[in-house]
Specification:
mainly beta, 4-stranded antiparallel beta sheet, 1 helix
Length: 343
């Protein structure tokens, strides 16, 4: 009886202090079984969602993931569309990674696609793209002649301008970018970015600086896969950054797979409880809440990345929150698409 009284008193005190119990988020699988590995995901609002992946496939839902329309892009049936940016139910841009690297655009819901960029340079491999708004975007690729490939658009992806070689950051030997989730670059102003590399060296690149990170590195399969910046695009010059990665050949290994910084990378902090394995994507949901996913499941942080809780063992490559809304979707192998249920 005494223990019950103590518990009741504790609950009353917590209630008076403003505490509200929050159940752990859950992952609801919406669909799976389609013959594609999904790494591109763009959530326009709480209803409109686009995905892209292998075998030239693109998927679109206009009712919050209840139903999906799948399209194989004609002429690109063997391409891997590793990233996608969508702006409404009709307009989207997809990126195919390897030689020839191409960027396509649709304005009719995926019925037809127009090639807006093509690069046949030997060794060309595009990794990710990010749009600050509907007009302003950037795409990055693996180094060519030891320089990181960068191209930008200012006209909603209708045309792309390659940066001059003198403007591009220098990559170290064995350093490149993973085309894992389309989230290793984040724009926060026109032509201003945070991007993270991987491989034998893993660093944070900004317009004015290149910063070493303590994340695991040294092999082609190691390094950073994704960077999240709090309120990027709105809070100019944001300093709150979380990076995830690991070694995708050992998906259950948590060693040196996540770091966060609150001073723009001058100092890095390791979580006391890291995500529970290799993670290919991380996304800010609020100043304190983050979600991260990988081959062996999904982790959630309530405290800015200081600790992580393993909330699902479902495999996903990418997780994104709605640009105009609050719904969070995930996508991964075999056409699997999920939704994060917060309460």
């Amino acid at each position: 009886m005494k223990k019950i009284h103590i518990l009741l008193i504790s609950l009353i005190l917590l209630s008076l202090s403003g505490f509200r119990y929050r159940p752990d988020p859950k992952v609801q699988v919406l669909t799976s079984g389609t013959n594609t590995s999904l790494r591109g995901l763009s959530v326009v609002n709480d209803n409109i969602v686009w995905v892209s992946g292998s075998n030239g496939m693109v998927g679109r839902s206009s009712n919050a993931g209840k139903n999906w329309k799948w399209t194989t892009v004609k002429g690109f049936e063997k391409k891997e569309f590793r990233d996608i940016e969508a702006f409404d139910a009709s307009t989207a841009i997809i990126m195919a990674v390897d030689t020839p690297a191409v960027i396509l655009k649709t304005t009719d819901g995926g019925e037809t696609w127009k090639t807006v960029y093509e690069n046949k340079t030997p060794g060309m491999f595009l990794d990710a793209m990010h749009f600050l708004d509907q007009n302003t975007g950037m795409v990055i690729g693996d180094p060519i002649n030891k320089k990181v490939f960068i191209a930008a658009t200012q006209d909603a992806g209708e045309s792309w301008q390659e940066w001059e070689e003198s403007q591009r950051p220098v990559a170290d030997s064995g350093e490149a970018f993973f085309a894992a989730s389309g989230t290793n670059i984040r724009l926060f102003e026109k032509n201003k970015y945070f991007m993270v590399s991987g491989g034998t060296r893993s660093r944070l690149f900004t317009n004015n600086n290149v910063i070493d990170m303590p994340i695991i590195q040294g092999k082609e399969t190691t390094g950073a896969n994704s960077v999240a910046v709090f309120d990027e695009g709105k809070l100019k010059g944001s300093k709150r950054i979380v990076v995830v990665g690991g070694d995708f050949m050992t998906p259950g290994e948590s060693k040196q797979n996540c770091y966060y910084t609150t001073d723009g990378g001058k100092s890095w902090n390791a979580p006391s409880t890291p995500p529970h394995g290799y993670r290919s994507c991380v996304e800010y949901l609020s100043k304190t809440d983050l979600v991260s996913c990988g081959l062996n499941g999904v982790d959630y942080s309530y405290n800015g990345g200081k600790t992580w809780k393993w909330i699902s063992k479902e495999s996903f490559h990418v997780v994104r929150i709605a640009k105009m809304g609050t719904t969070i979707f995930l996508a991964g192998n075999k056409g699997q698409i999920g939704k994060l249920i917060l309460d």
